[in-house]
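Question (not urgent): is this output format expected?
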Amino acid sequence: MGYFKLFQSEKNNDWYFNLKAGNHEIILSSQGYSSKSGAENGIESVKKNGGEDDNFERKEAKNGQFYFNLKAGNGQIIGSSEMYTTKAARDNGISSVMKNAPDAEIKE
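Got this back:
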């Protein structure tokens, strides 16, 4: 079962979250938020939008690796993946977000 890890950065005091799979691997990372409530709203947006394949933007980096962004209904990026060496691995990451995000609990 996946979960969200909510934390505040010691470097800039911004709040971030990671969606982690049951094996504790990060499958989605957020941008920085100036408040904890902003990050919590971001988590809710991932839960709401992470179950729809159309909300995922599949990308290829200049170095030939693959990644994805999860977008909200307004087109804003609410989370990004790590880099993957293959399209299939990236697509497995998307499937993992779709499976884990909607019911994931929040841990601090």
